[in-house]
Amino acid sequence: MAYTNKLHVIYGDGSLGVGGDGFHYIFSYERGGLESLKIAGKEWLYRTPTPTFWRATTDNDRGSGFNIKAAQWLGADYFQKCTQIDVTVDDHHFAGLPLDNDHYSNDETADKVSLTYTFTTLTVPATTVTVTYTVDVAGQIKIAAHYAGKAGLPELPIFGFRLVMPTVATGFEYTGLSGETYPDRMAGASHGTFTVKGLPVAKYLVPQENGMHMATDRVTITRETTQNNADCAREPFSLTVAKGRESFAFSCLPYTAEELENATHVEELPLARRTVLVIAGAVRGVGGIDSWGADVEERYHIPADHDIDFDFILNAK
Amino acid sequence: MDADIKWLDDPETFRVNQLPAHSDHHFYGNYAEWAHHTSRFVQSLDGQWQFKFASHPQARQPGFFQPDFAASDFGEIVVPSEIELSNYTQNNYINTLMPWEGKIYRRPAYAVDGHNKEAGSFSEGQDNTVGMYRKEFDLAPDLRGKEVRVRFEGVERSMYLWLNGHFVGYAEDSFTPSEFDLTPYIQDEGNVMAVEVFKHSTASWIEDQDMFRFSGIFRSVELLAQPATHVEDMTIRPSVDDGYHNGHFSLDLQLAGAPVGTVHVLVKDADGNSLVDQSLPVDEKVTLPAVALENIHLWDNHHPYLYQLLVEIRDEQGQLVELVPYRFGFRRIEINADHVVLLNGHRLIINGVNRHEWDDQRGRSVTLADMESDIQTFKENNINAVRTCHYPDQLPWYQLCDDNGIYMMAENNLESHATWQKMGKVDPSYNVPGSVPQWKEVVVDRARTNYETFKNHPAILFWSLGNESFAGDNIAAMGRFYKEHDSTRLVHYEGVCHTHDYSKQIPSLDKSTYLPAQGTKDYRDQISDVESWMYLPPKQVEEYLQNNPDKPFMECEYMHDMGNSAGGMGSYIELLDKYPQYFGGFIWDFIDQALQVKDPVSGQMVMRYGGDFDDRHSDYEFSGDGLMFADRTPKPAMQEVQYYYGLHK
C-alpha cells in the first residue's frame, strides 16, 4: 500500500499509530503523549514529551527567593498528570477513550490527525495545559501548547515543551540569536545561523538554568547513535523544529532542569546520555541587579494568571 | 630593636623600620639594561624558600631567624605563592563575616568603648597561622658594596623580617610594597633572610574583603641596590590647560646618595621628538619648573598617548649613574558646574568592571600572563575602566592600564565589612576605622602608600578610599590626604552613603535599608567627590538623577554577575542617554574566584568554591560573580556587556 499522499492510521488499543513516507508516530493513550517519533528508521523519543514549568534555580533566583515562591512548579514539572486525551482524525472527533476500534482495518488513511493531551498541573490551585499535536501528510507535526491562566498561582519559571531524546546529540544548528540569551539579556546578540558542537552546558559554579536561545526560527538537532541494538550505523541524522506563527525559545542540553537543580558542582552532573530539548513559549528573565534580593524586572516575569499560547512545527521539512 | 609579637594586637603599630613609600619607577644602569628590561641594581629573591608552618603563634620555632638555626625539618615553598595553596592550611572563602566567626569572640581594639585593648587577641590567637620563611642568598656582584634594600611586593598579612639574625622591620598592608633597608646587616655571601608571616593581626579587621582568605608571600620579592646617586621618589606633574590643547610639564625629584653631578631631564613624544631637555644640579630635592608645551596629545581610552620621560643622573665626570624611564600622559579630569564628570573636556563614561586579582590555580598570586589576558578581554569587550577592588594590584597592572587606556579607580586596601553590617542591617556598633583615634594613622598610611606608589600613572582617574567600611573621621582623613596631595584626580568612596538621609534625593528608598537605626553623623559633605552607590536599582538611580543631583552619580558595583545573570543591563545604560550626571559604573565583577583542583571521584580537573574545602563558615558559591569563569573563559553574558559597553565607547 502506498501512503505517499495519505497518512496511515493504526487504531490501536493503547495508542494511535500514524505513519507515512519515512516516518511513523505512536500517540499513546497510556503514557499521556507521543510515545514514538520515528523518522527515517530512527527513534527520537526517550519518554513522552511533557509541558515544562521549571528552570534550574539561578543564583539570582535563589537570592531573591524566587525558587521558594515558585516551588510548586518544580513538583508540577517533575510529575505530570494527563487527565484527558482527545482524538480527531480528519474531521471526525472521537467521543472518548477507549475508541470503539474493532471495525478498522490495517488500511485506514487520513489527511490529518490531531490529538490533544490535557494535563492538570499538580499545583494548588490546579490549572490545565493542553498540548495539541496535528500531523499532516508530510509528517510535520504542529504542536500547540496552551496554558490556562489561573489566579492564585506563583509566577512561572518557564512555560515550554520538553522532549527527551534517547541519546546524546552531536550538535545542533539554529537560526536565531548568538550565544545564550534571555528576555532581559538579548540586546547584545547577533542574528544568524549558528552551529553548536555537542551539547555544551555553561559551567556556572553551581549548575543552573543555562543555554537558552531566544527568538529562534529554526533548530536542527543531529545525532549519530540510537539505543536500537540492531542499529550500528554511525551516520548523522537530524530532526528539525521550525517556528509556527512566531519564533520560539529553546535550549538543547544533556540534562533536565531537575538534573541541573540537583547538582552543586558541574562534576556532579550525570554522564551525558540524553538530549533534552526544551521549546519554550515564555521565558523568565535572569535579572542582574543583585543576587541577594533584587527581583527580575517586572516586564520579564511570567504571570500565572494570564493564558499562554505558543506553537511550533516538529519534524519540519 | 627586637621584634614584638604584641604589635599584632596594636592598631597603632603597622610599620616598623619600613622605608617610606615612593613612586614605582624602575631604574637602570644604562640604556641597554632598559631595553632588555633588566637592571643591574635588582636581584630577584623569587623561587624556593625554606618553609615551616605553625598553626598558631605559640607553635612557632623560636630563633628560626638565626643564621645557624638547624632548619632540617623545614620544608620548601615557592615565593611568590599562597600558603594555603601548598596545602599547609585550609582554604576558606568568606564574604562579609570575619573568618573566625563562630570560633573566636573578638572585637577590634578600642572600638567598643575606646578602652578595650584586646591584648593577646591575635598574638595568642589560636587561628593565627604562621609561615616561617628562610632564604639563603649571596649578593649578586653588581649589588655588592652598595646600599641594599629588600622589597616585598605583597605579603598577607603581617610580616616580621630578619637578616642574618638581626631584626630588620615589621609591615602590614598586604597589597602594597614594603621596603626595608638591609645595608647594616648584609654581607656579600651567605646571607640568611627570615620572614615570619602571620595570617591575622589588627589589620585583619580592615582587610575583610569578599574573597578567599589566604596568607603568605604572594607577590615577588627583590633586592634593590642603590646607585651612587638615586632617584628615590619622583612626582611627574603633567597638566592640561583650559582649552585642552596646551599643557605644562614639571617634575619633582627626591634624590638619595652622593649629592654631586647633574640630573638630565628629557621628555620625548611618541615619535621621539624631544620636548624637554634640561640639566639641573643634583640636590636632595630637584624641581624642574613648569615647561609650557603646545598642542599636546591627550591620553584617553581611545588614544592612550604616552610621553617618554627619561631622567639621567650623571656624576661629575658625566658618566651615567642611573637611568629612570617613565611613560606618562596628559589628561584632565574634573567636575563641571553642572555636576558632570569630564575627561579632557568631554563627558566621561565609565564602562567598568571590578577586578579581583585571581588565578584559578595560584589564587591572588597572579602572573603577568593573567594580567595581559585580562587587558585583552577588556579591549575585546569595550570595557574601558577597572576598579582595583578592594586593594592595590600588582605593580605591572598600572603600567598595562596606562598603555592601554584603561581608566582606573585605584582603591586603597580597606574593607571592614564585618564591623558595621550584620545580617544585612547597617549596625556600626564596633566599626573601624570609624572615628576611633587609634585606627586613624593606619588607614591614612594606606592612603599615603597608595598615592605615593602610583601617583604617576595617568590611568588613575579616581582614588578610592576603600570598600564597604562605613564612614567616620578616619575615612574623612584619608580623603583629606588625597585632597592635600593631588589636585589632578577625583576621590571616590561609596560607604559614606550610609551616613546621609536621602529622603529628598531618593524618596522611594526605605531609610532603614541604608542608615543605622542608632543614627549617625552625616559625612556626605566631607567624603567623596562623586555620589557612589552599589547595586542601586535603575529606578532609584533615576530618582537621584531627577532630584537636582549635586554630585555626579556612579555605581561602583552593579550588574552582579553571579551565575546566569547580567539581565536588564539596558535599564542602566539608557540612563546614560537621559542624564549627563550619570557616568556609568563598574560591573561586579570580572572573574569568578574558584580554585581548580583534581576531583578525587572522577579524576577530572574541576572548579571548587567556598565550603568545598570543609571550610566553615563559608559563603559557598558567592565567590563566583565574574563575567569570566575562573579559567578565564567568558561567561555567556559577555556578549551583552560587549554590546552595551559599545554604545558609549
UniProtKB/TrEMBL annotation, chain A:
Cite the entry's keywords alphabetically.
Glycosidase, Hydrolase
Which Gene3D superfamilies does this entry report, sorted A to Z? 2.70.98.10
- Which InterPro entries does the protein's record reference? B-gal_small/dom_5 (IPR004199), Bact_Beta-galactosidase (IPR050347), Gal_mutarotase_sf_dom (IPR011013), GH-type_carb-bd (IPR014718)
**Highest taxon of the source?**
Bacteria
Asked whether the UniProt record includes Hydrolase among its keywords, one would answer yes
The residue stretches assigned to a coiled coil in this entry are none
Annotated Beta galactosidase small chain/ domain ranges read 17-315
**What is the catalytic activity of this protein?**
Hydrolysis of terminal non-reducing beta-D-galactose residues in beta-D-galactosides
The region annotated as signal peptide is none
The UniProt record lists the EC number as: 3.2.1.23
What name does this protein carry?
Answer: beta-galactosidase
Organism field: Limosilactobacillus panis
From TrEMBL, chain B:
Identify the EC number(s). 3.2.1.23
The lineage's top-level taxon is: Bacteria
Which keywords accompany this UniProt record? Glycosidase, Hydrolase
Catalyzed reaction equations: Hydrolysis of terminal non-reducing beta-D-galactose residues in beta-D-galactosides
Q: Cytoplasm as a keyword? A: no
Family annotation (InterPro entries): Bact_Beta-galactosidase, Beta-gal/glucu_dom_sf, Galactose-bd-like_sf, GH, Glyco_hydro_2, Glyco_hydro_2_AS, Glyco_hydro_2_cat, Glyco_hydro_2_CS
In what residue span(s) does the Glycoside hydrolase family 2 immunoglobulin-like beta-sandwich domain sit? 229-331
Domain (Glycosyl hydrolases family 2 sugar binding) spans: 43-227
Residue limits of the Glycoside hydrolase family 2 catalytic domain? Answer: 338-646
Keyword Hydrolase listed: yes
Enumerate the GO terms in the molecular function aspect. Answer: hydrolase activity
Q: Which family does it belong to?
A: Belongs to the glycosyl hydrolase 2 family.
What is the protein's given name? beta-galactosidase
> Origin organism of this chain?
Limosilactobacillus panis
Q: What is the lineage of its organism?
A: Bacteria, Bacillati, Bacillota, Bacilli, Lactobacillales
